[in-house]
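Thread: Benzil reductase ((S)-benzoin forming), structure

OP (GT): Posting the sequence first so everyone is looking at the same thing. Length is 251 residues per the record. Can we get the structure tokens written out before standup tomorrow? I want them in the notebook alongside the other entries.
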Amino acid sequence: MAAAKVFIVTGASKGIGAAIASYLLGQSHKVVLAARSGDLLESVKKSHPSQVEYIAGDMTSSDMAGNLTNLAVKAFGRLDGIVINHGILEAQTIDKSAIETWKRVYDINVFSCLAMAKAGIPELRKTKGCVVWLSSGAANKPYNAWAAYGSSKAAVQSISTHLAVEEPDITSVTVAPGRVNTDMQAAVRASGKDTMNKAQYDTFVDAFEQGQLLEPEQPGHVIAKFVANPNAGLSGRCLNWNSPELESYQR
């Protein structure tokens, strides 16, 4: 078996983040988890006491990214990869939205993600490691009332491509996971009727009712496999989880 590697996974308490962490742990890797739900992270640590460390808190806290990086190195001696999975969706049309809402979305979806990647760069240079940023189809396709969310994901995609150019020893990619059966999808179905274009909103409801949503493990396992064994030739790319370029990770 290959030597265990060390990863940071944000938004790791449930959904895609939890699926990524679970796969990595199943492959005997070490994982530092981050989320606001400390009880859920503690349960993972109890199940894998020698493989898991965590920090429960808000990723927008000024010291969160540095503390996670330092914990990985202190506990496990290195850092091989980061999966930046946390984020929020606020749905409101541009004309009705508040600039403060945009600032909050960008603080979570862009600036705290940038801070996490930035904090890890010195350690990832040593290991020729990897950063996987979770993106969204909304980065490239407009949805009514999703301007703040979609543009924040587009910003992340751009940052990832720039990181790939600036740090040739670090593989940096964004992965869009598709429509996954998570709390975010439930929130879209619950509140989107009042803000979204009806035709677009109906596609989200229909996908759920017809059982077409992905399970978190489907994109989650692809992402976990990639961060553990990155293809440096894909650095700088913005990919869908099921794209042909990631075929070898889908098996």
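GT: Both are above now. Quick notes for whoever picks this up: The longest strand covers residues 30-35. The beta strands are 6-10, 30-35, 52-56, 81-84, 130-134, 171-176, 238-240.
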